[in-house]
Design goal:
heterodimer; A: alpha+beta; 11 helices; B: mainly beta; 3 helices
Chain lengths: ~500, ~140
Amino acid sequence: MPIPYIPRADFSIYSDDPDTLIKGATNGIDIGPYSDSDPKDYGQWLIMFRYTPKNILPKVFYAKTTPPSNRVNVVVCSNIEDSDSDTYRIMHDLEWETITNPGYRLFTNTITTPYNVGGGVTVYYATPTAASVAHLNPIIPIFDSIGEGLVQANDEGWVYRNPDDPYEFDPDAISYAGGGAGTFNNVSDSIGVPALPTLSAVSAGFVTMYTPTLTQLNNLASFLWTDNVFDPDNFKKLFTDPMECIIGLTIVPVSPSTSGSQSIKVGYVDTGVSASRLSSQYAEVNCGTLQADEFWGSALDYSPFTKIHIYLPYVGMREINADDIMGKTVGVVYHIDLLSGACTAFVTAGGSVLYQFNGQCSINIPMAASNFTEMIHSAISAIGAVAMTASGAGAASSAVDAAAVGTAASMGASAANSAISSKPTFSHSGQMGGSGGMLAVQTPYIIIERPRQCVPSDVNKFEGFPSIINYKLYDLSGYTVVESIHLDGFDCTDTEANEILSLLKGGVIL
Amino acid sequence: MTIDFYKNHSEKNKLDKDLTSVTSMTGELKENCSIIDPVIKIVGNVGTFAAVNYMYIAEFGRYYFINNVISINNDICEVHEHVDVLSTYKDQIRAQNAIVSRQERKWNLYLNDGVFKTYQNPYIITKAFSSGFTSQHFVLTVAGG
């Protein structure tokens, strides 16, 4: 069971002196009542020390008051376990050994300096032998206590505190060797465009969808609004409003798949107007592909230097990451719900779906006054939303423009990093759903903003190009800047070696 | 001690210097002398050293840049030098392996080293997909049917 940590900031026993095991740096330690007659019940205590990495093997110290002399016995061991008040198991050389007299088992200590730690307890410090000193410098205390004394200790549950460096033994703060054990498995699963849904309102049978021609629609309108009161169908219309059976009439930018023609029925009324019946509520539009090739063949073809926006009809303009598509075949596929007009645009790169955007691609045609009112209301709401977005963006853009002018004037040919990042971003489109989308460009496209590099002639002879490759310098010629090197086999002076190092890192001509 | 004087036509940071031999002198060191930054008094007037900027001291096994020539009198000049470690140790340098950060001929341009320079007017191009929405159709949806 982990031992609870009770911080004792005022307690410190440490040594940075190789000739001294423990320096009396404690101050006000409270280890509770002590009894000479029964240390187990009234307060035996121990102090554990962990060696710093300077020591090869982790070793601990164990100190225990032993009645009746209040002496501190110290053992040196690799690990320790308290079995009872007078018998201890110590581990050295990875073997447990039970000892009954720890004070003299491994450490021929000489109790020298008494120290009153409070609570009626006097602690004596041990002077190490010469052999043990090698293992003791420096030592850092690991300690804790519960209730009336310090308890059995092991690494689990102990919190290490060094008053001079409170983070020294924080397991999250100590630097450690590690890493490099990754799988290096960079295989990517291809995420394909999904199939259209199989279940729909149409397949359920509660809804029938038609794709009438303009003539068929005119005939339907004529039927619905005829004034021939002697027509039997008109008689039915007196009892049931057929308009209530019409869920919607929309214009969609896609040719729906059909399964033959049949007469349009609205409620109980057979209109006698024949139209093609949709076989599916959903439709797919494949907008084809384009190739996003590198232009520079360098880091400039990728973000943040190159920025790419994609225009998707009925969705609008979206920014996509150049890193995602560069050098790949980019495709756009739409899935459209003909009932609601909702659409999802899948943007693929290298055959895998990387982006999905939603939009609205149908225009509702008003068939009654209430429909028209709703349409106008929704249109105005949409326009208002766009206007607010545009004005906000415009104000921001103006401010950015003003700042950009000053920046550009002072920069001239600038480093790509700062130049690209300082460019303002402008919106290329607003809301593109519904009727607005149908008025807009109907083919998706991408806008690539790539940096125009300033490359002086023979720049590689003056500055070189980035390399970060391990070469034998014998195999190189021309301007070379060394990142790091170990100078082996030189018979030069130290001053000369330093100068060689400095020159190589500053750039030499091989 | 033999000192070979040269006219160096190359940059200081080049390992293989383009040298033109001018003269060679022989003498003895009579004063303390550093092998890193030697200061050697040589018999000869300033005109003798006007055409040289580089030298090799065989006894030191080192090439030197001549940094300055001070005329002591009409017959003696004090020549200040500094060792050219690149030329002196060029064979040992070339035998080393090193991580090269920039190179004239061996490079990887996909490394973003922050040295790229760009103009403020970027290329803006548009590329269209091969097809789009090309037709419009009515869709009538009725309950039941």
